[in-house]
Amino acid sequence: MNKNLSSHYIYRCFSCEKRYSAAEIEEVPHYLCPACGRAAKKQPLQGVLWIEYDYDMLRNVLSAEQFCSLPQGQFWNYPQLWPLDFSRQGGKLSLSGIDPDTLARVALPANLFLHTRLIGHPVLILDDTRNPTLSYKDRASTLVAFKAVQNDISEISVASTGNAGSSLAGICARLGLQAQVWVPENIPENKRLQIQAFGATLHLVKGDYDTTFDICLEVSGQIGWYNRNTAYNPLTVEGKKSAAYDLFIETGGQLPDYIFVPVGDGVILGGLYKGLWELLRLGWIDKFPRLVAVQSEGSDALVRYMDSGRFDYQPAHTIADSISAGAPRNLYMAVRALDDSGGEALTVSDEAIMEAQELIAGELGILVEPAAAASLAGFLKLRDRQDWTGNETVLLLFTGHGLKDVAALQQWNDKPPVRSPEQWKEFFKVK
Hints:
It is built from 17 helices and 15 strands. By secondary structure, it is an alpha/beta fold. The chain has a domain at 113-132 and 239-410: Rossmann fold, CATH 3.40.50.1100. The strands form 4 sheets. A 6-stranded mixed beta sheet has the order 6-7-15-12-13-14, sandwiched between helices. A 4-stranded parallel beta sheet has the order 10-9-8-11, with helices on both faces. It has a 3-stranded antiparallel beta sheet with strand order 2-1-3. The protein is globular, with a radius of gyration of 22 Å. The model has no long low-confidence stretch (mean pLDDT 96).
């Protein structure tokens, strides 16, 4: 690992609250809390690590007005808020050991937000289908890969339903790293092809995502691969907070009332919460937007936990493979995100998800995968309740591109009949 460990951040256990210096966690790598961390099979993780900075100091060197002038999608422009080594060159902060050309290869598009109307309601959309590998997961993979580069690590492993794997594979290809990607046997074919096309080594696992997560941890730990598994590696939560900062820049600090988040493992939800929590600590906002976690009825562990306060493992089954998780690994942080923001968790049917996917494509011309369409399905369900006034401002997360799962699109797009030129003339009654 890097011998010049940074001192501008610490790790705090999200479970037992114990604090650690960067050196204590990174010198001999720990992924979970050394005191209470536990990665039991098919269970939420215990002791997920949360990264904190000197927010009192940052308030004196960063202002909300200055921050809003920064470009979106380039988190390295505010390196003090990331667990990476940075230096000052010519009066400008930069990431140590990572040159401008490398940064340019992994930058997100300049503006992923769309202000529009959908089913008659004004909405703000974060369209992460346009990211380098076409999903929100690039926000986490980039941070993990930069950490690997700074620490002279060349090989990274990950368990994935598809998007995290293709994201890591693509980012590693751009940075000259090797990805070891573990996926369940029923991965959508397009995601499998994307992972392999990027040059990753693909390991197909007989079983579901939860089984895949566990075997990836077991093998990676024994071989010594740097592990990107969601929530297990604290940089995955940290990387996904960048959307909160991009949102702050886009809206000039006027955040929406509601944010609808598709939820499987709970790391996108936890990452957004982390970014919003930091904006509060910096004094740049005075309250959380209400976070709404949207799950499929066939993968509803967070909803069930919110209702009962108890986790019971149930296998997940849903067409929205990206949010299919029987054991949400970041469950407890997801619960805190909803509690602190006054939000809630709700379920939608696979049929409602498919209808939302079709509506998004037809009204906006954006092709999203089923998991991304769940955000709209959740909004439509909440909008129909009696306590919805219609004046609320709304952000929907579009977290993955529709071409990543063609089988889902085939369910509502029948192949048209094939006719010869003569038959088409006869069909249209032309000569």
